[in-house]
């Protein structure tokens, strides 16, 4: 993995993107100690990973009364 300080990253950004296009990760160094604070990583365009839809999926339970009903117009507020 290559790493660049912020100033270097600015001046070599096209080069960094070429590394990333080839599948490499690039670290971003910051501060006097040049600690890695972030990474630029390639995205996987063919990801088959399933993601959960909804931020609260599995964390909340919604129930409706048996006599609950709403028309499409009421739902759409028209």
Automatic annotation (TrEMBL):
It comes from the Bacteria. Belongs to the phD/YefM antitoxin family. This is Prevent-host-death family protein. It comes from Leptospira ellinghausenii. The lineage of its organism: Bacteria, Pseudomonadati, Spirochaetota, Spirochaetia, Leptospirales.
């Amino acid at each position: 993995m290559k790493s660049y300080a912020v100033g270097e990253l600015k001046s070599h950004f096209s080069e960094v993107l070429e590394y990333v296009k080839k599948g490499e990760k690039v670290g971003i160094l910051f501060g006097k100690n040049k600690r890695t604070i972030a990474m630029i990583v390639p995205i996987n365009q063919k990801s088959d990973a399933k993601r959960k839809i909804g931020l609260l999926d599995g964390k909340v339970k919604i129930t409706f009364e048996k006599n609950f009903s709403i028309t499409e117009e009421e739902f759409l507020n028209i």
